[in-house]
Amino acid sequence: MKETDEAKAWILGARAVFDSELKNAERFTVVVAMCVHAVIRANDALTTKFLKKKAFRHDEAPELFMELVRKKIISNDDKRLRDEVLGPAVQIKSGVDYRGQKIDDLKATEWITSAENFLKTAEKYLT
Questions:
Q1: Which of 14, 26, 86, 95 could form a disulfide with 34 if both were Cys (CB 3.0 to 4.6 A apart)?
Q2: How far does Cα 60 stand from its chain's mean position?
Q3: What's the per-residue H, E or C state across 45-93?
Q4: 53-90, pLDDT tens digit by residue?
Q5: Residue 60 belongs to a domain with what CATH number?
Q6: 3-state class of 102 per DSSP?
Q7: Domain tally for the chain?
């Protein structure tokens, strides 16, 4: 699926930037921005397949995710991803994409893990 392939590419890119020879702190901002894009694309894959629509604005993404939960497409166990990953991704997006919000290496590592987990969960429902 196109969206999950893009999400995987964003995550691979984030790992590559994190591990790169760049040793400035700004690379962590880029890593988080890439992880945010991965999460949004994975969510797009879910909503496109099951709802036949995707968020036009990023702040619509968490509500569409909850629509999947209400329709029992996403389990109640996995709905926590809205508050733990998707919601925070939408909230931090403009900070890391446009304003160069400062991110440390620990937070960047957490975002890589969160994006990987969100994608893994999305793929569970998509297969």
A1: 14
A2: 14
A3: HHHHHHHCCCCCCHHHHHHHHHHHHHCCCCCCCCCHHHHHHHHHHHHHH
A4: 999 998 999 999 999 999 999 999 999 999 999 999 99
A5: 1.20.120.330
A6: coil
A7: 1
